[in-house]
Write a structure and sequence with these properties.
This protein is α+β, with helices and mostly antiparallel strands. The chain has eight helices and twelve strands. The strands form three sheets. It has a four-stranded antiparallel sheet. A hairpin with a 2-residue loop joins strand 9 (171-172) and strand 10. It is globular, with a radius of gyration of 18 Å. Residues 238-243 have low confidence and may be disordered.
């Protein structure tokens, strides 16, 4: 009998054909979880990485704080995500990871991570694929910051987050939980919270999407995709035609 899957297991299963034994290994690695409050650092820049963090519930982020105190968010971590399979090879972290909401988190010791990743060829390929997709997301963010205007950046990020949530089974009728404040979105997009608010209002008035009450609701996915110039090939899981 296969143990019920959590968001982490569902994500890894999506990246390869796993045997029942592989699924059990993932479930066992996801236990026991612990609750972490919002706005807490899991690991800070300069710390020695010694465990793998797995997000089962809630939202976290990778970030750096500039000398002037401004924060740049470099990635959002949602249910199913894990942080830095290979970071244990580094002497210290070059960025911090912190929770944005209350989270349910598993910490897997480095030796157990290594044993899990190489335990079967299917799991090895699935973890490689997950890491490659994370790198694709980073490249998409670089393009947004360098070449998209504010409206396009917001539209692209909303579609990306929706697609990632859908890929772990956490969307319903073009809606998903999105418990991110406009300040947090601004820190990810390189915009002020006032500018983010203006763009969100424009998208709402056009009947394209709504963000409120911790929920993203996409009303016209075709129009949102055209604004963003969105192509989800870097996620390697299609959300449907958006152009």
């Amino acid at each position: 009998m296969v143990t019920p899957a959590n968001a982490f297991v569902r994500k890894i299963k999506a990246y390869g054909l796993l045997a029942d034994g592989d699924v059990r290994r993932l479930v066992e690695a996801s236990d026991p979880p612990r609750k972490i409050a919002a706005h807490r650092d899991l690991i800070r820049e300069g710390d020695k990485p010694s465990v793998l963090f797995v997000i089962l519930e809630g939202w976290a982020c990778r970030y750096k704080v500039l000398p002037d105190g401004n924060r740049q968010i470099m990635a959002f971590l949602m249910p199913g995500d894990f942080c830095d399979v290979h970071a244990g090879e580094l002497e210290e972290m070059d960025h911090s990871i912190g929770t944005l909401t209350p989270c349910l988190i598993v910490t897997v010791p480095r030796r157990d991570v290594e044993a899990l990743v190489i335990s079967t060829p299917a799991l090895t390929r699935a973890f490689w694929r997950a890491q490659l997709i994370d790198e694709g997301v980073l490249r998409a963010w670089i393009v947004s910051m360098g070449r998209r205007n504010a409206l396009e950046r917001v539209a692209h990020l909303m579609l990306e987050l929706y697609a990632r949530m859908r890929n772990v089974g956490l969307t319903t009728d073009h809606s998903c939980e999105l418990p991110l404040t406009q300040v947090v979105l601004g820190d990810a997009l390189g915009l002020t919270s006032v500018h983010v608010n203006r763009v969100l209002r424009e998208l709402r008035q056009q009947g394209i999407m709504e963000l409120g009450a911790r929920t993203l609701r996409i009303l016209d996915i075709i129009a949102l995709g055209k604004i963003a110039g969105f192509d989800d090939n870097y996620l390697h899981r299609k959300i449907g035609k958006v152009a």
